[in-house]
């Protein structure tokens, strides 16, 4: 028998006990918790609905009964960890109660790693403890393919420039041993050697410059590629993918994470090769010169490595603190400056100054503490690293002055020089694991976006019927979170060319309904058709091209008036733009600016008022000549006079188009053919303004409440308050 | 410091405020004399008030952090506020346990007794905590915290709150009373 189960983690007394609620195909629900279990049948009993109630830090499922007089009954309790699954569970139970059909459950989203049981976090569906770093890096490297040739060339140049440095050092030793120390060289001989050294050095520098340029080019192109690919993928994802992540998170993934990957490749790729080559070459040279002295160098190595590890761990946590304090201080500052009008209007400058200076003082304290630590610790570290050098100097010195000539002065100098090449990479190797970890996390985050399946799927052979027909909603149920359905079984038929006004309290699902008509989301159940075709069978691009929208908050992009009006439509002529602006009553204020339609708006450009903004938005909708028009509180942020002016342009726009309008101000909807009143996620009343007033239902109450407000306002104006 | 101000403001405002007098506004305080809370068979809390019986009320704290025992909003099952209970101390001995239990059922933020381990893994902090449960015993809980600067916060000078990725909350009542090892593990997050 088919069944689905929901695991919960508390008993009814909120004690930590594992329990399970199972819903079977035959309508029975078994609740097992702490050894006891009981069964309820939703078909036989009087259960009307299974409801999830979220508390603070915990939640519960309860049954509502068909008989209103019967008490609601708590079935199980759980911590927040169970909330999402509880919602899914109840959805299936409720669907069964309503239709007697046992809906196959969606595959429950994995929340924990199957291997180690740790929670997935931050919408990352890969376990950060268990994923294979190698495969992630391999994938990141695969994006390097187009640049493979240049990359390899750049790498070989590094090796070459490294060798140049070694040659200089060896020449240096040669100069000391052969000419300077025995004091037998001639000026010409010395000049020859110095000249060769200079030439080698120059070649080395040239190679270094070439290499840097090539390397930067390759890594920048690589990061650009990765960023464009991620961004392009992001554009194909549904609103749901956007709303489950914050804009900040997405921007960070596109910008910061791709940069982290680039930095890693630049640093790890470039310096790792270089340092490793230096390390190995230096080691070989040193062993050939004197293997005993070489071993001496390695005596302090374990200490240096340990000291470095400890040092970084210590300093990192301190700097992390400083970093957090910095971000707190800057966010306080950001808040104050952004809200400076409010601060000044409320005369709260002094309090704000105090708030900022307290945070600033704390930051200064931490920063100076950290600097002091750094100043104390760093010399210690240098001291430990220096021990190897001292040992070499001491024993090497003895070898140089000993009679058997075991070591020459030049070779000792070479030795001391090469110690740096041995100790240098150590510093780097210690911090490498963390570095690698950060880069691979970024890779995981970026690849996750690339791998995400768009929820709004585009059909392979879309059926793009003309959208001029009517819109029909057929049993549409939808919720942004599965446990909180916003719309519950909406049935609505909108005739072609009809204007529908959506009315209802805020939060009742008006905007959600139009989001579904625009197919920014797909309904959880039921369907929406235009001209008899399911929206899911049309291509989203085609649909969006034929729907015009005016929102309450118009987003204007940085650009000119012209670009903003022509937004999302490439094949427009200047006449189109001007005609649209005129129809939207925007032409006059645009022409009042010195650069007319070429005036820059948005950040740093011309400032425009709310009314002007709204008119631009209407022009933007008009220019698309859409068959379906959606007005979401298009005029509610405006004053009555401006609204009247805009209403006029809107009425031109609405003519002969299927229109769905939401307005808080009910008078705005007087042109609507029918009004649809939503209440608690369902259609409560449908009719014309007059019909609904006569009905004396919800609409009547809303109108009366607004009328009272208006009367209050006008009374206040009259009495001069 | 912020807390001190709020407390002072609160002291000034308990039992009326100048705004209420000037504007003749009313926050809709519940007349405790007329209210009778009761437990329903279904496991919820009900309220008989003003001649009406509500079988499933929801209690919400208006100031859960600063004054958890004052200003508790009581709403019916359609989420309409019936009234605000000014203070738990106004309740009779028989009524108090019912209301306290309902609040306990709604607000679940177990107290952290010990921090067993804290692992910072790639920007996410995985914690193993020993938390106190309702039976005054303790059990272990693993949780993951993202964006630590936002989700591990000091509520005031001494207490701290941790929000995990699921939205669970854990409270450290007094960091000064924690054992040294736990405190050291939390140290990087004390702000």
Concise overview:
Chain A contains 20 helices and 19 strands.
What does this structure look like?
The complex is a heterodimer of chains A (721) and B (191). Chain A has 721 residues and is an alpha+beta fold. Chain A is built from 20 helices and 19 strands. Among the domains of chain A are: 3-99, Roll (PH-domain like), CATH 2.30.29; 139-290 and 407-455, ABC transporter type 1, transmembrane domain (ABC transporter transmembrane region fold), CATH 1.20.1560.10. In chain A, helix 6 (247-289) runs antiparallel to helix 11 and helix 8 (301-338) runs antiparallel to helix 10. The mean pLDDT of chain A is 81. Chain B is α+β, with helices and mostly antiparallel strands and 191 residues long. In chain B, the strands form four sheets. In chain B, strands 1-2-3 form a three-stranded antiparallel β-sheet. Chain B contains five helices and twelve strands. Chain B has two domains: 2-106, no CATH class; 111-189, no CATH class. The A-B interface holds A 12-16, 55-58, 60, 62, 71-74, 77, 79-81, 83, 118-119, 121-122, 128-129, 317, 320-321, 324-325, 327-328, 437-438, 440-441 and B 40-44, 55-56, 64, 77, 104-109, 121-124, 126, 133-135, 139, 142-144, 146-147, 149, 164-169, 188, 191.
The gross shape of chain B turns out to be: elongated
Biggest chain-to-chain interface with counts: A-B, 37 and 38 residues
* Annotation field: number of helices of chain B: 5
**Total count of domains of chain B:** 2
Q: What is the CATH C level class of one domain in chain A, in words?
A: Mainly Alpha
Overall pLDDT level of chain A: 81
Query: What's the Cα radius of gyration of chain A?
Result: 36 Å
- Distance from first to last alpha carbon of chain B: 14 Å
């Amino acid at each position: 028998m088919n069944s689905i189960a929901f695991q919960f983690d508390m008993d009814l007394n909120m004690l930590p006990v594992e329990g399970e609620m199972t819903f079977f195909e035959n309508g029975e629900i078994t609740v097992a918790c702490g050894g006891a279990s009981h069964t309820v049948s939703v078909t036989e009993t009087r259960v009307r609905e299974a409801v999830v109630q979220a508390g603070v830090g915990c939640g519960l499922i309860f049954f509502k009964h068909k008989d209103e007089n019967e008490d609601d009954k708590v079935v199980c309790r759980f911590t927040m960890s169970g909330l999402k699954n509880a919602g899914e569970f109840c959805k299936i139970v409720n669907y069964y109660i309503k239709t007697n059909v046992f809906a196959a459950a969606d595959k429950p989203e994995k929340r924990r790693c199957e291997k180690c049981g740790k929670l997935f976090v931050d919408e990352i569906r890969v376990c950060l403890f268990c994923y294979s770093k190698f495969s992630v890096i391999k994938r990141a490297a695969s994006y390097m393919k187009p640049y493979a040739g240049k990359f390899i060339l750049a790498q070989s140049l590094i090796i070459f420039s490294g060798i140049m440095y070694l040659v200089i050092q060896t020449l240096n030793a040669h100069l000391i041993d052969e000419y300077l120390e025995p004091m037998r060289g001639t000026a010409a001989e010395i000049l020859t050697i110095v000249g060769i050294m200079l030439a080698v050095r120059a070649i080395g520098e040239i190679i270094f410059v070439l290499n840097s340029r090539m390397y930067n080019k390759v890594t920048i192109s690589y990061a650009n590629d990765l960023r464009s690919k991620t961004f392009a993928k992001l554009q194909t994802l549904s609103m749901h993918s956007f709303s489950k992540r914050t804009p900040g998170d997405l921007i960070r993934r596109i910008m910061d994470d791709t940069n982290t990957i680039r930095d890693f490749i630049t640093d790890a790729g470039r310096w790792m090769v270089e340092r490793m080559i230096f390390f190995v070459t230096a080691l070989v040279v040193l062993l050939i010169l004197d293997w005993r002295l070489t071993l001496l160098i390695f005596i302090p190595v374990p200490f240096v490595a340990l000291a470095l590890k400890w040092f970084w761990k210590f300093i990192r946590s301190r700097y992390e603190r400083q970093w957090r304090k910095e971000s707190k201080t800057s966010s306080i500052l950001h808040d104050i400056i952004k809200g400076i009008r409010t601060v000044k209007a409320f005369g709260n400058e002094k309090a704000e100054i105090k708030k900022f200076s307290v945070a600033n003082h704390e930051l200064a304290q931490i920063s100076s503490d950290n600097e002091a630590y750094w100043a104390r610790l760093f010399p210690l570290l240098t001291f430990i690293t220096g021990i190897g050098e001292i040992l070499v100097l001491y024993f090497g010195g003895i070898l140089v002055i000993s009679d058997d000539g075991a070591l020459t002065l030049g070779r000792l100098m070479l030795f001391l020089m090469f110690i740096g090449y041995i100790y240098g990479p150590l510093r780097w190797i210690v911090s490498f694991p963390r570095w690698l970890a950060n880069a691979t996390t970024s890779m995981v985050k970026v690849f996750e976006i690339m791998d995400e399946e768009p929820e709004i799927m585009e059909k392979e052979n879309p059926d793009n019927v003309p959208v001029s027909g009517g819109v029909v909603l057929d049993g549409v149920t939808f919720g942004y979170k599965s446990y909180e359905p916003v719309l519950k079984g909406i049935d609505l038929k909108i005739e072609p060319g009809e204007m529908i006004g959506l009315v209802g309290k805020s939060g009742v699902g008006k905007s959600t309904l139009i989001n579904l008509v625009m197919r920014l989301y797909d309904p959880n159940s039921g369907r929406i058709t235009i001209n008899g075709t399911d929206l899911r069978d049309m291509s989203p691009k085609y649909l969006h091209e034929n729907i015009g929208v005016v929102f309450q908050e118009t987003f204007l992009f940085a650009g000119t008036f012209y670009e903003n009006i022509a937004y999302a439509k490439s094949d427009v002529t200047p006449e189109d733009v001007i005609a649209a602006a005129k129809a939207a009553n925007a032409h006059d204020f645009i022409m009042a600016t010195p650069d007319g339609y070429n005036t820059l708006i948005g950040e740093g450009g011309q400032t425009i008022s709310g009314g002007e903004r709204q008119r631009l938005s209407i022009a933007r909708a008009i220019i698309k000549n859409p068959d379906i028009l959606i007005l979401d509180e298009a005029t509610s942020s405006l004053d009555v006079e401006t609204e009247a002016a805009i209403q006029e342009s809107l009425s031109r726009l609405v003519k002969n188009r299927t229109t769905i309008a939401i307005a808080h101000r009910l008078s705005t909807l007087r042109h609507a053919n029918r009004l649809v009143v939503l209440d608690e996620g369902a259609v409560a009343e449908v009719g014309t303004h007059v019909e609904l007033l006569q009905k004396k239902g919800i609409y009547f109450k809303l109108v009366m409440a607004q009328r009272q407000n208006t009367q209050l306002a006008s009374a206040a104006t009259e009495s001069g308050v | 410091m912020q807390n001190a101000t709020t407390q002072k403001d609160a002291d000034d405002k308990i039992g009326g405020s100048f705004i209420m007098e000037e504007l003749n506004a009313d926050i809709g305080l519940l007349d405790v004399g007329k209210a009778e809370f009761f437990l329903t068979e279904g496991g919820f809390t009900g309220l008989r008030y003003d001649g009406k019986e509500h079988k499933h009320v929801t209690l919400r704290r208006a100031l859960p952090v600063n004054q958890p025992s004052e200003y508790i909003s009581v709403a019916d099952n359609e989420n309409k506020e019936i009234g605000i209970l000014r203070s738990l101390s106004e309740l009779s001995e028989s009524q108090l346990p019912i209301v306290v239990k309902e609040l306990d059922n709604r607000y679940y933020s177990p107290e952290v007794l010990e921090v067993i381990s804290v692992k910072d893994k790639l920007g996410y902090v995985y914690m193993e905590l020993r938390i106190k449960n309702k039976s005054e015993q303790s059990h272990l809980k693993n949780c993951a915290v993202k964006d630590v600067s936002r989700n591990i916060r000091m509520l005031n000078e001494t207490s701290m709150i941790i929000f995990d990725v699921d939205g669970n909350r854990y409270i450290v009542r007094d960091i000064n009373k924690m054992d040294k090892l736990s405190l050291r593990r939390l140290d990087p997050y004390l702000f």
